[in-house]
Records
---
Amino acid sequence: MGSTIDVAKLNWMTTRLDEALGWARKFSIFQYPFVTACCGMEYMAVAASHYDVDRFGAGFPRFSPRQADVLFVVGTISHKIAPVLKRIYDQMTEPKWVVAFGVCTCTGGFYDNYATVMGIDTIIPVDVYIPGCPPRPENVLDGLIKLQEKIAHGAKVALPASPSSRPPELQAPHRPETHL
Amino acid sequence: MGDESPNIGTLTGAIQVRFPQRVMATHRFRGQETVLVKREGLLELARFLKDEPPMRFDFLMDLTCVDYLTFGISPSSAPALATPSPLPYYMKPKPVQETWDRFVSHDACRFEVVYHFYSSTHRHRLRVKVPLSSADPVVDSLTGLWAAANWFEREVWDLFGIRFAGHPDLKRILMYESFQGHPLRKDYPVRKRQPLIGPLN
Amino acid sequence: MSDEWSIKTSAQEHGLATRHSLLATETRHMFLNVGPSHPAMHGIVQIVVELDGERVLNASVEIGYLHRAFEKESERGPYNNVIPYTDRLNYVSPLINNFGYCLAVERLLDIEATERCQYIRVIMSELSRITDHLTCVGASAMELGAFTVFLYMIKAREWLWELIESVTGARLTISYGRVGGVKADLPQGFAERTRRALEDVRRVLLECDGLLTRNRIFMDRMQGTGRISKERAINYSMTGPFLRATGVALDVRKANPYFVYDRLSFDVPTGEHGDNYDRYLVRMEEMEQSMRIIEQALTRIPSGPVNVDHEGNVLPAGVMVDEAKMGRVAGFKQARVRLDPTLEGSTRGYHDAVNAPERRAVLPAKEDTYGNIEGLMSHFKLIMVGHGIRPPQGEYYSAVEGANGELGFYVVSDGSDRPYRVRVRPPCFTIMAALPELLVGDMMADIVPTFGSVNMIGGELDR
């Protein structure tokens, strides 16, 4: 007869292992700051002591793509720099995540012209978008926490919208999808 | 402009006296003096401006170009009024002392290469413009006189397609080599992209 | 890159290639690629250096990776639409860019900002200059290993940004300047808070001075590296701290004063060697001078009819419009309106103090827009497509002293509501053009402090 493998138990074990890995990973983010433009100023503010990104375990930038697991794309990406960005992304080892920092990387922002790429997701996949021109440091930290949740749970879990901190009278009313 | 007797006291007057054949026109607008010069006379004039004691323009502050292709006929703006609109009641008309001329018609010169000189000894500025036709947009390079001209001229070549004769290394500076056309020309569409790598999807 | 690479090895130049290859102790020059994505490259610049051992023999600089078509974009919209783009030119000192552009358009229109507005512009420009120098010195110190200095200086910058935020509503991309004025008056208690913040900044600078200026390692790395002579610097049309470090006391604020700089006393610090160390000293001293300017300006700023409280006759704007539709307009001229925080830019209380009395360029106070037909029309005439600010045909080159040097805006108007051409003279462009000359002869490791002292700002360099 021999012993039978308890599949349910194995699943349980791998799930727990994934969780443990995710938990460990989310607090040891080695980021590669691909800083190009204005957003870099806010990136510096986030990294420095006032906002202190080290509290989230992401305070140690690596300037080699081989050693990094989160690519922070900070600032406008022009067509001239796009191949460089792609190459750096390709050089990073799995598992890897990409954060689009600032509205230029999210959508192109208000630079809609011959020189700029309209959002880096036309070149590389993006995990977390942090809009803002540039985003405030609080906004960046919010995005970072979202990324940590994503790292911890893999891509399986849809992220809940974070509760708004604005007073109720200032919140945007809920609108059904409209056709523009 | 040319029929006025040149005023020697001003910078432009002195230049007009010195280079009567080369200077096409001069004017003063909002306190800034401008000389329009034929491209054959540019190098000579630049050397004069740099070395002559009363001029002593030691800085080539800026070098750029303007494409006058759609000047005054910009399709995106409201049609220009034939006459200036009357002033509202609350505004006093200002005395007009200065004039600004395009001077040359659109066809004869589509481009104007604009040089801004500055003198750190006399603390004065001068603008020199060289009109160029679109058929033959070539002008002498100033790299021999100012090292600063090197990159400025590369930029004008890159964005406007003006060639500078005598430039040691005239290649694109802001755009990439495979880029077609010159983006700051008025006939280059704003959104015409030439991506180096294709979109992901 | 390799096929475009134009620098020959000196062995080839001297025709020694064959002889060299026969020798056993063959030495070859190494080509090293630095950037475009490199921690010391402050964003994106590529430098290819030819090395003999650690000595730099030749360098080639490739820029343009942040070309965002500022000049093309500014031809697309009305005059005021350019202002947000100017924020993002030199994004470390955006206020100076704002005011530089506004000055050019104002001169085209031949209008003059009010005195209070000019003082505000001076104060804000100098705050911006301090933040710029803090960032530059802090970042280049960090690259030399002095991380503490970086953290201290960013902390100081944070205090100044809080001040700037209290005035403009934003930390970095502020869009505070307007043609003919500024967006809003200084808030209540600004002078007091500024003085306190400057005290704090002074303390930080003193600490950093103690950490850096007589630090042996720092001195060894900065002194004598990246040298340039006075004559070459002028030949390259360098301006700003870079030129002043060579000993030329040229500052647009002194040489061709704009705003109210001629009424304020300040010194123009100069160096003598033109090396990295002198540039560092010049920047440190300039911060002190900027603080001097701010303190003087704060005491001399004319009060003007500043009245921002909304007590008394408060009326929400919407209610006011509704009332006006019913024809009940009596007393509206005096009524104060409670505005949205976003609209508080120009309320009647201080509108005349910070804006030029010029309806061709300046939006009316919001109370007037909502309260009477003249104000509404005046607003419409500036906002409607094809109307707006319409300078006469002409051109103007305005020069202001940016944090990196002379920041020029050359604006050509064809009489329509949008600028025909906006050219910005980027101060760090000419310095970057000289970078190969600065690097050659130094060691490989000296690239970092030299490049740091250039204070290359991508938005300004590539536009």
---
Amino acid sequence: MSTKSLSAEYLKGLWDENPVFRQLLGMCPVLAVTNAVINGIAMGLAASFVLILSSVVVASIKKLIPTQVRIASYIVVIATFVTVADRFMAAYFPPISKALGPYIPLIVVNCIILGRQEAFSSRNSVGRSFIDALGMSTGFVLALLVLSSIREILGAGTFLGMQVMGSWFKPWIIMILPAGAFITLGILLGIALLVEQKTRERRAS
Amino acid sequence: MNLLMMFVAAIFVQNYVLYYFLGICPFLGVSKKIDSAVSMGMAVTFVMTITAVVSWMINHWILIPYKLDYLQIVAFILVIASLVQLVEMFIRKISPPLYQALGIYLPLITTNCAIMGLALLASLKNFSFLETVIYGTGSGLGFTLAIVLMAGIREQLDLADVPEPLKGAGIALIVAGIMALAFTGFSGMIN
């Protein structure tokens, strides 16, 4: 139904419709797990896994689902993949699973995932939904990576556990605290809007 | 005493919004006016208390005895979704004025991660039945406190001169950050 090329379908998730910076979806995990880069990456990959597989499944069974119960059906599909991701993390990466705590099961209520099923996969072909989910996931992982890098570098002076700041650097404890998450994301949102405005002005002139 | 401490901790120290980052969507979305923030907070507190009770029963009477705890995520989300529907129908029948007040906020709660988070955290912390109820109510009140405070600040913020790109969500997040910082002051209260 959509006439966009496949590459445009992928790229829109990176910036134009970036789930975090442009659509303000899925904020809870974004704020909660970005105190260290490794947690951000693990969260991003887990959410991507769930989003991509649910999109493919929903797109392939969309004709079988009656409209009245579609939301409930999507939730069951999503919850199944979240359970898989949760068990997998607990079995193979116990320390990360412990650090992320309830936030992996909480992917089930992440609005990005349900939002994509409702807005995209339920109306588009399997291939297109896969590409769309891939793009959205990349955008989500990128956002988590940016936020967690800023917070870990400023808050602990490290990146992925490696020391990157010199010994002169005094870590800003606030960046690791919840307050740092809110303030950093707020400023990043402002920057994203500013960039968007500037590009629009340039395109117009 | 222990229960009282837990109640206070759930409201101030481990505030759902400012400490666990749960329920950020309604926190940012419904915090423009104090009236609607109060209604949303009440609706959440109400559903949270019921969810705490029901999820505890499901967990301890069905999932654990039959070794089905790997179905926890699926079970909780389905229970919460149907529970919200039931509560909505029930309130509409029993108390139309309350339904008018909570009305549109109830369905929104299904996708509120605070509710799901409560069910998961309570089972993660292995609370007893009474503890779960106290924890559920306290967490709901904590959410109400945060969202009402936020609405009060945002009503004033409308008159402030905020830089153009930060308007809306940007400044709201920064304000939330400063609030979270203030709330960390409470953490000395309980150890």
